[in-house]
Amino acid sequence: MIRYINQKLPLKGFDTPPGMILDPNNRWVKLSDCLPWDELSESYYKTLCSRLGRPAKDARIVIGAVIIKHKLSISDEETVEQTRENPYLQYFIGLKGFQAKTPFASSLLVEICKRMAQTVFDEFHEVI
What we know:
Layout (H helix, E strand, L loop, with lengths): L26 H8 L2 H9 L13 H14 L3 H10 L1 H6 L13 H10 L2 H10 L1
Helix pairs in contact: 2-7, 3-4, 4-6
């Protein structure tokens, strides 16, 4: 089941821990601003059934996690931990504010790679 909400959140609207202000020049903030999230989401959602199954994780979280994993060349487990610890990465994947709990399980990345055929990755490259 697909539930997509465009989560273009302004940097000022991101809820951070007290005393912390996110730097608009951070690489993850800049990358977040220039990616065509809606187009990437469309490519991702083509792989899902729109009426059956449990609700899917938001495309921004999934696509963002895949980008983080590959950009940093880290394992699935490390991707989860880095995202849990880093407010910039949480902003990048579209969360509304920093949270101490993990936003997704490492098994999500395994499922995504199985579900997304090479054609989806090719579409990502084309869109980007």
